[in-house]
Known about the structure:
Radius of gyration: 13 Å
Helix content: under 10%
Number of helices: 0
Largest sheet: 7 strands, mixed
Oligomer: single chain
Structural class: mainly beta
Mean pLDDT: 95
Strand content: over 45%
Amino acid sequence: QVQLVESGGGLVQAGGSLRLSCAASGRKFSDYPMAWFRQAPGKEREFAAGISWGGGRTSYAESVKGRFTISRDNDKKMVYLQMNSLKVEDTAVYYCAAAASMGLRIGIDMNPGDFGSWGQGTQVTVSS
């Protein structure tokens, strides 16, 4: 298992930016794909962005493509989500997640069930 702690959420106006961070500890972080999911009130948890173990492959939900950027620093055991041009509909709790399997291939519509470790979440609120 890997332990994950998110930070960087907050309140921002529409059009603004935020950078989320996820600090990992535990098993060998660099071997596993990582992702960010989000969950708005009354809605199911949905995939936002994913990154392969080495960082060479990334994927994004259509709703965030072109606005969000996922990255990782394996030396520091960190994953980041840079969010630009934020919209009111981006309001949600954002979760960092580590793949349950090293072999998971990051795609455009990842299933939460493929991720075995989760952080506690960080709230992002975008006001109009």
